[in-house]
Amino acid sequence: MATAALLATTALTGLGFGMSSARAEDEIRIGVIYPLTGAAASTGVELKAAAELAAAMANKEIATPDGLVVGAGMPHLKGAKIKLIFGDHQGNPQVGATEAERLITTEKVVALTGAYFSNVTATASQVAERYGVPFLNGESSSASLTQRKFKWFFRTTPHDDLFVTNFFTFLEEMEKKTGKELRTLGLFNENTLWGNETTKLQVKLSDERKFKITEKIIYPAKTTQMTSEVQRLKAANPAVIMQSSYLGDAILSMKTYKELGFSPSMLLANDAGFNDSEFLKTLGKDGEYIISREVWALDQAERNPLIKKVNDLMRERSGVNFNGNSARAFTGIAVLADAIDRAGSTKPEDIRKALQETNIPASGLIMPWKGIKFDASGQNELGQGIIVQVQDGKYMTVWPFDVATKDIVFPMPAWDKR
Predict the structure, then answer these.
(1) pTM higher than the cut 0.70
(2) Which domain holds residue 130?
């Protein structure tokens, strides 16, 4: 066990003072902020499990598949061990900011990661920016997060500018493929930072690409009823619903769609709740045929064997497969561990410099990306998206068409025809 003096030295190192490298017995303390209680607790549990898997590989507690970049063994820090210190933001931006401050000032973490909810990532990363501590975001997709000219913020996942653009490209290609028009849209998005920004992007691209919005609904996050909203969507009769919902809202909407007999030709979901493991556990066959943007899919293992190898470890440890949320959380910790190891230091400035110099090839990832390399804003410029559809209880890649493993079931069958 570390002595009090050693702990004190480690704490100072975490705030940028003291030694430039850690001794073997030192801990590298990383703060991780997720929703561990509240409406998104089940999501948070999976994100936590994914982060812990990456840390276990970095610490050589379990074997790392060949080629995976995860800072295995932390050789440039003499085998120092990563210790994840978790904070629970409960889905509340102010709590997220408070937890970020606690982790920095009391827990003496050398870097932060999280926070899944874009509006919480926004506040927590502001705290990190103020203290000069690196914040690596793996899961939040609001485009504005990397438009703030922050020095200490880095994001591995693609953002909604890319995802929403992909939606419209996909719809245009579907029109060519099927010969059917998909020009009428119903927008149905929650009202936090993520949903509001997504709505603005969808309106902008609808205008640019000559789509018509027949109904636009921005509903209260964590709502307990959607009857009136779904009735409005049904009356507007769009060919495609574009929906941004976290888990509870996604499940509630599907139950309401069925109850009111509303079945558009296509439900195009913006990931999040629709791809959470609890979505299909709760809805079963009623979750079939939804189409969603995604950044990860198990069926891409045929193209990248690392996907299956790492997913098998996740399933062995947690009992569930990765999904797009947890795969991004795993990747975030892996990239941060690699950067800290390359820095050979626990000083925040050295970690920031190593993040700036990150250049991980596609072959080192479980994500279907071209790699990870950060631009001047801190955004990974090599990320890309795919689109999946639930078929027989599994998320199958259906777009881009050249990497699809299944044909799209279209239109979505009516409730009484399933």
Answers:
(1) yes
(2) 4-158+302-372
